[in-house]
Amino acid sequence: MMGGKNLRPSMATTLLHVTAFCVVVATIIGNSGVQGSHKVYRELQSVPADKVIETHRTGYHFQPPKHWINDPNGPMYFNGLYHLFYQYNPKGSVWGNIVWAHSVSKDLINWEALEPAIEASKPFDIKGCWSGSATILPGNKPFIQYTGIDKDERQLQDFAVPKNLSDPYLREWVKPDQGNPFIDPDPSVNASAFRDPTTAWFVNGEWHTVVGSKKDMLGIAYLYTSKDFKKWVKAKEPLHSVQGTGMWECPDFYPVSQTGDRGLDTSAVDKSVKHVFKVSLDLTRFEYYTIGVYDTDKEKYIPDEGSVDSWAGIRYDYGNFYASKSFFDYKKHRRILWGWANESDGKTRDVNKGWAGIQLIPRKVWLDPNGKQLLQWPVEELETLRSARPVTLSSKVLKQGQNIEVEGITAAQADVEVSFSFQSLDKAEPFDPKWADLPAQDVCHEKGSTVPGGVGPFGLLTLASEKLEELTPVMFRVFKKGDNHVVLFCSDATSSTLTKDDEKSSNLTRDEMMYKPSFAGYVDVDLSKTKKIALRSLIDHSVVESFAEGGKTVISSRVYPTLAVGPKAHLFLFNNGTEEVTVDKLTAWDMAKPVMNVPLEKASINTEL
Ligand code: DQQ
Fold first, then answer.
1. Who contacts 182 (Cβ-Cβ below 8 Å, separation ≥6)?
2. 395 and 282: one domain?
3. Is the CB–ligand 1 distance for residue 323 below 6 Å?
4. Distance CA 309, CA 295 (A)
5. Does residue 195's CB lie within 6 angstroms of at least one atom of ligand 1?
6. Is residue 147 within 6 Å of ligand 1 at its C-beta?
């Protein structure tokens, strides 16, 4: 069986690649002021939106009414409600003035907005309240750990607790002077790169938490332990570290069951479980995870053989997905993953449109029965937004060059599930050995939807204009490699918009340009037996979130069509390979608009307890 893992480039080649890439990324992202990963535009940080341009706002993805958002923070289920906190700029549409905004929901889909839970006010967070996590302590007491920036721009680990535990919404949070910060970076720690504490877990009679950091290019997950959740002591060794990977933002560490899809509490640590360790790599702005074993005697995490650390490894999402955080939902016994998708349209447009950033649909995550990767699937509650009468198609043959329009749905705001099959893999194109050392994205860029193939490219043309001047293909392409096959999965934004300002001739700076990548990953599936593959795409005006083969590979793209907007957006099935492809079944639903961050007092939804 072949798949993404077999295609991973050698570490040495990858490093070369990444070094070059990092120079580019550093130029694009840059940093100034406090050492965090976000581009700082001081002059724009406190320019409030005078209007909100709706064109590309999402219909059912999480976003506040206006301004900038980034990382999801401290998600938790508590006394009947889901809480989502997130990094938010109340004063403008670029990163800055960061507070912990706060929303609540009964179903992870309809959200009511509360006042910010944590704002800069104390010496230990006066220059910012950055990312962190929630832990439910014994006695059913929620506890937030976050990174505060002090006046010297040192990154400290602080905590906040609900002011009134009997308030069902936990509206007010206090940051006690006593005990804050609960971790002060010791002199051996790089205090300007020390942030994003994880949900704590209890093992060996002690609480444990991890904080992301770096020393030069060494990425580090510092481990701290505490007997009483008050006094925290740094462990002799980090839980995990990897040379050459730079700053580890937003680490996440949790157990997964080796059987079935039920999630586990973060403290459910015994020999029967595997562990997942994820970092958001500031250098690449992508997230990588490994599956491994947590040795609780040595207090070390050890990735399994073949589970590769860093950018040679696997990602939750091969597209626009960053600073994610998971939590155990003990209502439904599942682990849920939230990730942030930044805009790709350039900062001037963000300021003009009065908003920037969305949270992707929360996903259930569990271990693939192959034990080598996770599976991800949108939470089942999303299905409550599906129209009662979906459009369906079955047994439709797609010959080479054929497009079939999926008519009768609102193609700009839809949920589409489709399964494809074909007779044979004989026509699969050979896999060029030079691609083995390239990211899948480069292969997708070279072999776009209009480049004819053997088995594929086939899939969906999402957010397409009537005459296909604009389109975001989400597609598969099968290659033959030795005696096996590899499956490339792409979400290609190259032709997603007619906006032309990404061209070299433009005199715009890079961060004002439209970013239109050919995002791609490989799918670890053996098609020789089944000759079938499935796809689900969540299409929502400026985002396409796609799940290949039951969530084995996921890609999210942000796109900004100019023609394929609202009712003028279309959806097509297509095949551009010589092998005929059959659409065994397609079901496409219009998606309703949920209640989205209406202030609690005004909303009529389901958070009434
Ligand atoms: N965003 C936060 C940091 C985190 C980064 C600041 C990741 O805590 O490292 O807004 O996007």
1. 145, 157, 158, 159, 230, 232
2. no
3. yes
4. 17
5. yes
6. yes
Question: How many angstroms does the Cα of residue 131 sit away from the middle of ligand 1?
Answer: 6
Give, for ligand 1, the residue of 127, 130, 283, 284 to mutate: max count of ligand atoms closer than 8 Å to Cβ.
Answer: 130
What DSSP element (H or E) covers 488? strand 484-492
357 and 455 housed in the same domain: no
71 catalytically annotated: yes
Q: Which atom of ligand 1 is nearest to the CA of 71?
A: 11
414 CA distance to ligand 1 centroid (A)?
31
The CATH number covering residue 509 comes to: 2.60.120.560
Say how many Å lie between the CA of residue 102 and the centre of ligand 1: 17
Whole-number pLDDT of residue 190: 96
Q: Do 345 and 395 belong to one domain?
A: no
Reported as a single tens digit per residue, the pLDDT across 537-561 is 999 999 999 999 999 999 999 999 9
Q: Which of 363, 379, 395 is where one domain is finished?
A: 379
Catalytic annotation, pick one of 50, 71, 270, 483: 71
pLDDT for 574 beyond 70: yes
pLDDT of 68 strictly over 60: yes
Would you say the CB of residue 158 lies under 6 angstroms from ligand 1?
no
Does ligand 1 come within 6 angstroms of the Cβ of 196?
A: yes
Question: Could you check whether the bond before residue 251 is cis, i.e. omega within 30 degrees of 0?
Answer: no
Q: Give a yes or no: residue 603 inside a domain.
A: no
Q: 399 and 344: one domain? A: no
Q: Indicate whether residue 130 lines ligand 1 (CB < 6 A).
A: yes
CATH at 373? 2.115.10.20
Quote the CA–CA distance of 299 and 296 in Å, as a whole number. Answer: 5
Structure tokens at 413: 């705001």
User: Which DSSP string do the residues of 256-299 spell out, in sequence order?
Assistant: E-SSSS----TT--STT-EEEEEEEETTTTEEEEEEEEEETTTT
Dihedral over Cα of 49, 51, 56, 58: its sign: positive
3-state secondary structure at position 528: helix
339 Cα to the center of ligand 1, angstroms? 12
Q: Are residues 184 and 239 in the same domain?
A: yes
- Indicate if 365 and 466 belong to the same structural domain: no
Query: Does 600 map to a domain?
Result: no
Note down the domain range covering 454: 386-590
Answer yes or no: is pLDDT of 32 > 60.
no
- For residue 147, pLDDT beyond 80: yes
Mind listing the pLDDT tens digit for each residue in 308-353?
Answer: 998 889 999 999 999 999 999 999 999 999 999 999 999 999 999 9
Residue 61 lies in a domain: no
> Is any ligand 1 atom within 6 A of the Cβ of residue 127?
no
Q: Are residues 366 and 514 in the same domain?
A: no
Q: Could you give the number of structural domains in the chain?
A: 2
Residues 357 and 434 in one domain: no
Last residue of a domain, one of 359, 379, 399: 379
Measured from the Cα of 147, ligand 1's closest atom is 8
Q: What is the pTM of this model?
A: 0.94
Q: Which of 10-19, 142-151, 212-221, 290-299 has the lowest mean pLDDT?
A: 10-19
Copy the structure tokens of residue 120.
Answer: 């800069």
58 belongs to a structural domain: no
Q: Of all protein residues, whose CA lies closest to atom 11 belonging to ligand 1?
A: 323
Residue 340 CA: nearest ligand 1 atom is 11
pLDDT of residue 5: 27
